[in-house]
Amino acid sequence: MARAYLLTDLVKLVRAYGVLAGTGDMDRIIAGQISRRWIAKEVEHLVPLSTLPQKLFHTQRGRDLLATELFSDEDIDPETINTSKLDFGAMGDNCLINTNRLPKLEPSIHAAVLTANMLLGVKHYGNHGQGMPGMTHDLIVASMLHDTLGKPYRYSAITSADHEIVDHSYLFSWFGDSVANYVQVLNTYLEQFEIAIGHNEHPPEPPSAEIATAVAAIAASRLRLTARAAGDQVISFLDLENRDELARKGVDIDSDFPERPFLEADFARTQIAFGLAGVDHYALREPLKHTLIMAVRDVLDDDSKRERLSGRRGKAVHEVHMNLPIMEYYVAADNPNSLETVHLASLEMMRSLEKGRRKSLSTMSAHAFRISAIAERVLGRALQPLIVTLAMLHDVVEDGSLRVTGYGHSLRKIQFRFGGPIAAMVSELTDSNVHSDGANKAAVTLSHPHLMQPQEQYNFSSFKQTQLKPTEADLPYTLSGIVIKLLDTVVSLEEGIRDPELMTGHWRNSGARIYWAERVRGAIVYPLMERLLLELKASQIDPKYYRRPHSVNNVRLRAGMALLDMTMMYQDLYATQNLAILALEYRLGTVQRDTLISLFYDPNVNDEQFDARVLNDLLNDENLRESISEGVLECIAHTTLYGKDATTESLRDASTFKAYRASALRRHAIRQELQLDSADKLSALALRKEQMLRQFDQTIEAQNGALRPELFTKAI
Fold it and tell me: Fewer Cβ within 10 Å of end Cβ, the chain: N or C?
């Protein structure tokens, strides 16, 4: 059921982001829905430069990569690099490239982001600058959602295998009558539009100028994605399996320009859509006519010009985005807590992280969308546009750097586009090069006498800070920063829970997963959870709490309680899955695994008893060595009971695993302190754990048995 509070424009937008992430993140431009095998190959990892296709370096993207890696100390023009004089073989495995820098087919959800920003520009600046009042936000959201009908929504259940289908009833329930009706009107007209094009006939007249403009924006957005794929020559660099997958879908992979038929079709569709009666000229046709349309026309006339579509400043990307009225005219710095700034942030995120993939099923865009959707679910009436803007931008600097995606983003650019306060809040969410900074910042937050509001730490009316740096360990996280850190953790845990078989290398085993959850992310998240707990308890026991100068209002306190509850739930689910992985590594049967899980969570089992019954009896190293010999895991260092540099001669180091259990028991205590341990809540958590374990076992069986070596040792 939809939430009972007011269905605002912001709520509709973040729900749309969630539906897009749950229905379209496995769809790619040109390819359509791709296989999980394809997705697994896109998972972020490092590859030697010498293994990349040589023809990549004859493209603009490839030359940019070479300039960054081989000539980082020189101000070199990538066009001047003579690849024939480079000895790639001599580079060996020394020069490692993040795969997020390599060209990829964009997820179709990017088209929805573009459509929304195009139409927002029409709403504010269309009709010769007067704006188009009839371009409502409901129509903008409907234009984002029109392609989700009939698709499975993968986040409607705890596992990817269980889902519901997005239909009209779903849209009416979650978005209200207006959005759902607009989706129906749009899809009815789009069907007529496509039929007319298929018969070489002129499309019927649209129901209104607003619908005509929405159809034109939808067509232009798809063309932009196709143009980038053509400019990047993506299909040419796909491996044999992915090319075969495209061939089965009718793509001529042997062509010198396999993207051309799709570029031609989308160009023709956009031209026809732009000719519909009522399409806004000033804010839609005009800015695209002299950028995207002209560039694609030139490429279709002369294939050699397709490189102009590519790159960080390509005509299919940079010029289109920068010429959109919402980007050109709207001043986000003056409106940091507005719906328009959220849209602008989604565009900035999309254009900076278009190649970004996470170490799971998700693209960078879907990750940000999912954070936004969960924020609405747990924060309710406490949700603000600023929180969603931070969800959009929190990874842009960190993952948009030259060495990660090749984009070269920075806090300075965020400050220029969004103003000092938002840039400062992004900086506190951006990981520092010093790994201890995040934990130190969290410790400062825990010891701080009160929660810092963003407006307090970054004076929105006069903030002019220019020396921004990631994390800033001496300053506490603001309340907004805490919220995003916890939500980001929830979504990261969820990604691991849903698709464990898509993790690569040591991330498939208990060692890296538990170390990350406890020592890396846990070192930041645990103090932040404790700080929220302190505030919640103070509000409950201090009758004068709301008279304090820095008190948090009741709406936000309830939201904090819900956020803490959800964070702990996902931590428990992730821990349970990690215990299942550990059980596989130690060759435990189902009954033994259940015993391991039960003892791990039982607060009545003391450390001495846990050591004896679990570490000594259940987790027998003879079984572990047998698993290594059979390839269930690559080496002993990949399991949590040994250090990351351990050899078969090393002694056990169970400190991280025991700390991980202590954290699980602490969550049990927090639930008691906040009275979150009702029978209903505990039963619901137990059911989710059971569902997750059932799906995990089915995944193992689908990989040809629980002990199949490839499952945990090979990158798919």
Answer: N
Q: How far is CA 602 from CA 337, 605, 641, in A?
A: 45, 6, 20
Residue 28 near residue 105 (C-beta atoms within 8 A)? yes
Same domain for 25 and 85, yes or no, is no
Residue 713: predicted pLDDT:
38
CA 442 to chain centroid, in Å, comes to 23
Tokens of 700: 């193992």
Residue 82 to residue 67: CA distance in whole angstroms: 11
The amino acid at residue 216 is: A
State how many domains the chain has.
3
Beta-strand runs (E) in 25-69: 27-28, 32-33, 46-48
- Per-block average pLDDT, block size 10, for the chain (716 residues)? 73 97 94 92 89 86 86 85 81 83 94 98 95 97 97 78 85 96 98 96 96 98 96 92 95 95 97 97 93 94 89 76 93 94 96 89 93 95 95 93 85 91 91 88 95 80 61 90 96 88 79 96 97 96 94 95 97 97 95 97 97 96 91 91 91 96 98 95 94 88 52 34
Distances, alpha carbon 669 to alpha carbons 663, 666, 673, in Å: 10, 5, 6
The helix (H) or strand (E) run that includes residue 96 is strand 96-98
Nearest to 615 by CA among 656, 668, 574, 645: 656
Cβ burial of 377 (10 Å; 0-12, 13-18, 19+) is middle
Which residue in this structure is represented by tokens 């396999």? 258
Q: What is the pLDDT of residue 708?
A: 41
CA 598 to chain CA centroid, Å, is 33
Across the chain, which distance is largest between two alpha carbons, in Å?
A: 80
Please indicate, yes or no, whether residues 275 and 144 belong to a single structural domain of this protein.
yes
Q: Is residue 426 part of a domain?
A: no
* pLDDT value for 651: 93
Q: What is the pLDDT of residue 461?
A: 58
Which of 231, 306, 236 shows the shortest CA–CA distance to 52?
A: 236
Find tokens 């896109």 and name the residue. Answer: 42
CA distances from 479 to 239, 387, 455, 536, 570 (A): 45, 10, 10, 13, 21
Q: What is the pLDDT of residue 159?
A: 61
Which pLDDT value is given to residue 589? 94
Predicted local confidence at residue 175, as pLDDT: 97
> Which tokens go with 509?
């085993």
Which residue(s) pair with 33 in the sheet?
27
Give, in degrees to the nearest 5, the angle at Cα 39 between 37 and 45: 105
**Cα–Cα distances in Å, from 148 out to 110, 145, 165, 180?**
13, 5, 9, 12
DSSP SS3 for 32? strand
- For residue 483, tell me if it sits in a domain: yes
- Which of 85, 101, 117 is a domain's end point? 101
**What per-residue confidence (pLDDT) applies to 433?**
80
**Residue 203 DSSP code:** P
As a whole number of Å, the end-to-end CA separation of the chain is 38
Check residue 602 and give its pLDDT: 98
The reported pTM is 0.93
pLDDT for 331 equals: 94
DSSP 475: S
* Contact present, 332 and 341 (Cβ < 8 Å): yes
Containing structural domain, residue 75:
39-101
